[in-house]
Amino acid sequence: MIGTILSFMQITDWTDFGLFTVVARAGSLAGAARETGLSQATLSRRMTALEQRMGRRLFVHGASGYTPTVEGRALLERAKRMEAAARDIAHWSAEQSGPPRVRISSGTWTSNFLASHLHTYWTPKARWMPEFVSCNRDMDIERREVDIGVRNRRPTHPWLAGRRTGTVEHAAYATSHDVTGWIGPSDDTAALPSEAWTVAHHGPDMVAVANDPQTRLALAQSGVGRVVLPTFAGDVAAGLTRVSDVIDVLTAEEWLVCHQDSRHDPPIRAALEALAGALSAAHPLRKPAQSPTFTVG
Length: 297
Prior knowledge:
Elements (H helix, E strand, L loop, with lengths): L1 H10 L2 H13 L2 H8 L3 H15 L4 E4 L2 E4 L1 H26 L5 E6 L1 H9 L12 E6 L13 E4 L8 E9 L1 E5 L7 E4 L7 H10 L3 E5 L2 H9 L5 E4 H4 L6 E2 L9 E8 L6 H16 L5 E2 L5 E3 L1
Parallel strand pairs: 3-4, 3-5, 8-9
Antiparallel strand pairs: 1-2, 5-12, 6-12, 6-13, 6-14, 7-10, 7-11
């Protein structure tokens, strides 16, 4: 058995499995390139080489991007376990030289909020270290991609626990009410409700698009057009004013979500309490929940 493993390791670049996971999740080379910092050409070459080494077709290449085949999905499940093992080793290693890291995933604006208000709920003397993961998709808590996720809905899986922290509202922002054009997402990024709403209601009026929320903010600040933002971010954005009422259909609950088995671990518990306080009460523009308590999905 050991000989077989060592033989496989000699002909396989383990990094390629990590890149494969990113490509499979992103569904496109463009999305994977943004996440990894590698060029699309490099990723294409590495995926082709991996398919040749494995002797299996892992992707269907088409207009919709890189879609995993049946064998690709089977490899993805195994690669996720490798990913989890690698993170576990990294966390274990980090714990030897300092407090354990707690990985926290959230969207762009909530990540910015938590980072800019870090001093209100964390100090270097805390028994946990925050590791922020800014991502607009739900990262896998079950497989420990992250320890805590900030999400826009109550968890439904029985292995997840959630704590409602408040409500997030959205509105349109621009440099003035005279600005009429709209700034929207590029074709491969209309995943967030606010992005989909912009395309559905103002697609013909879009004058600029970008795949990154912060780039869209910068475009709005330049006076190009209107952009939809969470009110807690838009109301404090330099040079912007609210040019619409709250868009009711985009109003959503905000939940802290973690694995049911880990929510009592001291570092994660401490992080949950700190984050709940920050999200519920630390900023007047966020609407806190009345009595946030944990509930099982």
